[in-house]
Amino acid sequence: MSEYVNIKGVVVRETNLRESDKLLTVVSFEKGKLAVNCRGVRSMKSKRFSAAELYAYSDMTLLYKDGVYSLKEAELIESFYGIRYDIESFAASSYFSEILESVCIENQPDPELVSLFLNSMYLLANRKDKPIPFIKSVYELRTALEEGLAPDVSCCSVCAGTDSPGYLDIANGVFVCADCFHSELSSQEGGRFLVPLGRDSLRLARSILAAPSKRAFSFSPDRQVISELSYASEKYLLYHTGGNYNTLEFLHSVVQM
Ligand SMILES: [Zn+2]
């Protein structure tokens, strides 16, 4: 049995095979994550060349046959070309795509995650006023949100206060204010994995998590607030996705957080 399938998808991994063939990992709006075979696509003469490059976002026609997808036709929508000339953006896109690849599942579409990735890539390719640690923090928090793993930062999980600095309790996914942390109750639970979250970082985390998708990147916080939230959101996502992302070390080596 064979059939043609049309998808809109972005290449998150490419592996060169023999001759001019490639194996792509594509994350699509319609079918989640897919392995796609591409024959003859490394030849510059191939019309599909640009659509089969890493981070290319394209309209693709695939042939599904004997359990394998092959790329038949493709029309490039966006190449995110600017990322190739900016080592910091490239490092961030490597980390984002590794996360996307690890949380997406074959034949389980998650259009919000694909949109989040594309929006992040657009900002990385057209860098203006958004610092990379901010884009990263939004990406991490919104990935947690889409996966149903978002922390509850609406108030302190002990006293329900909403306006004091405190800590993000990484494992339990809750916020604990500084007063409650120093109280007897919290000190009895000394083994908890807590990272500091000041008042402004707490508010920023709430805003990022509550925003409609298109507005998630619309904030312009101070450098120090970004730095604090970036540390917390990274620890949080790594803990909850069981991630051990190879690309994160590279990102830290080129971007000061
Ligand atoms: Zn409290």
Give a structural overview.
This protein has 257 residues and is α+β, with helices and mostly antiparallel strands. It has two domains: 77 residues, Beta Barrel (OB fold (Dihydrolipoamide Acetyltransferase, E2P)); 126 residues, de novo design (two linked rop proteins). The chain is 37% helix and 26% strand. It is built from eight helices and nine strands. The chain has a five-stranded mixed β-barrel with strand order 1-2-3-5-4. A four-stranded mixed beta sheet has the order 6-8-7-9. A hairpin with a 3-residue loop joins strand 2 and strand 3. Helix 1 packs antiparallel against helix 2. It is elongated and about 65 Å long. The chain starts with a strand and ends with a helix.
Short description:
With 257 residues, this protein is of the alpha+beta class.
Q: What spatial form do the alpha-carbon principal axes imply?
A: elongated
CATH architecture of the largest domain: Up-down Bundle
CATH class of the largest domain: Mainly Alpha
Structure summary, number of beta strands = 9
Number of helices: 8
What is the spatial order of strands in the main beta sheet? 1-2-3-5-4
Helix content: 25-40%
- N-to-C order of helices and strands: EEEEEHHHEEEHHEHHH
The protein's oligomeric status is single chain
